[in-house]
Write a structure and sequence with these properties.
With 564 residues, this protein is of the alpha/beta class. It has 17 helices and 10 strands. The strands form 2 sheets. It has a 6-stranded mixed β-sheet, with helices on both faces. A 4-stranded antiparallel β-sheet has the order 2-1-4-5, with no helix packed on it.
């Protein structure tokens, strides 16, 4: 527990360090504001003392006005300074977390709900930023106010000051006891919020399925139950956290009244002047405010600590290995799977001692039943997954030798599940080559048999296609994805059921158009469609982690199962 707490504080320090000058200025402003606060009770006591002696109080009143005005102006300037730092801190920390999330292996993301991952960016970082700049940093001026008020009180009435000092441990004990309960409640609230966000994100993404199965009422009930679980968790947290503030205020008010009674007796005994009595009373009121704020600090610290721990757990997860030094995929190299073993976590081995050689410039068609590992071969080649044993080479160079950006930049992928952005058709096609001109984009679109339907759209290439290309048909989306891969012009191209949504005429046109394009590169053609097999130089069937060669007409061939 202590190690975790120390780690959290080191993380806080690391997050704040780049903003040290700005935070130092804000801290200085808050300290001056604390001084203005501490001056007011003394001036108030002096005003009362002079009034009782029938003396002028003009200068003292001006001093009080200046102190109040300084406190107000400094409060505003400090708030703006802290908000500036908070915005920069949240933006920078969020960018770092986002970059790290992108670098994590797909297996890490597959093990988590997307909504829970998004909650890190949309919730936890903001909680930490608000705590660091709005709660933690003002803690020092708060303590200065607390200690300063006690010291002045001690100067005016030592007995009363020592009585206050003896009462403070009681308040600290109350905060400690409440904090033990607040920590799990804060964690439960954040978990309920993340679960609800994940459910909403999933249901909105699967809205067509929801409507097709008429399960709107079911999902509405599930969301309502999750929303009420979140509301209940928040209520439990607020009930405890909110109780700290009035409890502290009650104890503080009782303390102030007790001080007033003791101070009154000292006035009667002649050991304290009326002006001093007023100052002591006002300093007692000053003490109540920091104590109340300390109560809220404790509760917020528990919530922020939970958020920080979740972020630290994510940031400590190792990203994809990227220690290669080769900057380009060779265009004329064979692609070799050499004695590869691979299994998904918690599942039987998919490949064991698997070997396969694909000659440079060859179009290899891979067929086989669902679950045989056809798409997994493509993912292994892209290093989206790593084999447990063996290696994969391009032109004799192991994949680990390539920089990840170079490896994936040299491989074009058109997957069975088409993924498109909420952007224009032009932006989607040019996603892998943002510097491509219109002529290159149109050439890729023509090769993918997409140019004609794009031109028929009202805005042509400027047409915005919606999330996941929802405004296009399935076949149109697949052609846009294919054009995107062709524009990238990679030496290796993976077509994973790339014509699955083409009609027969469109598939025939694609085959005729792409023969020349595919001839210039090494192609893995994953398909079940007989017509697409016409593009292949060789056809293999994958099953049970092994492969066998087939004749191009689709009949089985007995040659060399599982050999290179």
């Amino acid at each position: 527990m202590r190690t975790g707490l120390a780690h959290t504080w080191r993380a806080y320090a690391a997050w704040l360090r780049p903003y040290a000058p700005s935070l130092g200025l804000a801290l200085l402003l808050m300290l001056v504001q604390s001084i203005a606060t501490l001056v007011q009770p003394w001036l108030g006591g002096q005003v009362v003392a002079r009034l009782l002696r029938a003396q002028g109080v003009g200068l003292l009143l001006w001093g009080l006005f200046i102190a109040f005005a300084a406190q107000a102006v400094l409060g505003y300037v400090t708030a703006m300074q802290l908000q500036k730092v908070n915005g920069r801190l949240v933006a920078e920390a969020g960018s770092r977390v986002y970059a790290h999330l992108q670098a994590l292996p797909l297996s890490w993301h597959h093990a988590r709900r997307r909504g829970e991952v998004l909650a890190l960016l949309t919730g936890d970082i903001h909680r930490i930023g608000d705590f660091l700049t709005g709660t933690l940093l003002p803690l020092l001026p708060l303590l200065v106010t607390l200690v300063g008020a006690w010291l002045v009180m001690w100067h005016l009435a030592p007995l009363i000051a020592w009585a206050v000092a003896l009462m403070l441990p009681l308040i600290v004990l109350l905060l400690k006891l409440a904090g033990r309960r607040l920590r799990p409640l804060g964690q439960a609230t954040v978990q309920a919020w993340a679960a609800l966000s994940g459910l909403a994100e999933q249901n909105l993404e699967l809205l067509p399925v929801l409507k097709a199965f008429a399960t709107e009422a079911l999902e509405e009930r599930r969301y309502r139950e999750g929303a009420y679980r979140l509301a209940a968790a928040q209520l439990r947290q607020v009930r405890w956290q909110g109780a700290i503030l009035p409890l502290t205020q009650i104890v503080g008010a009782g303390l102030v009244l007790a001080l007033l009674g003791v101070a009154g007796q000292q006035v009667v005994a002649g050991r304290l002047q009326v002006g001093g009595l007023v100052s002591v009373f006002l300093y007692g009121m000053v003490l109540v405010n920091p104590l109340s704020q300390l109560a809220s600090v404790y509760g917020q610290a528990q919530t922020a600590r939970g958020a920080a721990q979740r972020l630290l757990d994510v940031m400590q997860t190792a990203p994809e290995a990227d220690a290669g030094d080769v900057d380009a995929v060779p265009a004329g190299g064979d692609l070799v799977f050499d004695r590869v073993d691979f299994a998904y976590p918690g599942r039987p081995p998919l490949f064991s001692d698997f070997s396969l050689r694909i000659r440079a410039g060859e179009t290899l068609a891979i067929t086989g039943p669902n679950g045989a590992g056809k798409s997994t071969l493509a993912h292994l080649l892209l290093r989206l997954h790593e084999p447990q044993r063996g290696q994969i080479c391009i032109g004799g160079i192991p994949l680990a030798r390539f920089r990840l950006s170079a490896l994936r930049g040299g491989i074009g992928l058109v997957s069975q599940q088409v993924l498109l952005w909420h952007a224009s058709i032009r932006d989607n096609i040019a996603y892998g080559r943002v510097d491509a001109d219109q002529a290159a984009i149109e050439r890729a679109a023509r090769a993918a048999r997409a140019h004609d339907f794009i031109q028929a759209l009202p805005q042509g290439y400027d047409t915005v296609i919606g999330d996941q290309g929802v405004r296009l048909s399935g076949g149109q989306r697949q052609r846009i994805a294919l054009a995107r891969a062709l524009l990238k012009d990679p030496p290796i191209l993976i077509l994973d059921e790339a014509t699955a949504m083409f009609d027969p005429a469109g598939e025939a046109e694609f085959i005729a158009e792409c023969r020349e394009v595919l001839r210039e590169r090494t192609v893995l053609l994953i398909t079940h469609r007989p017509a697409s097999l016409a593009l292949a130089d060789r056809v293999i069937r994958l099953a049970h982690g092994r492969w066998e060669a087939l004749e191009k007409i689709g009949d089985r061939h007995p040659d060399s199962a599982s050999s290179v």
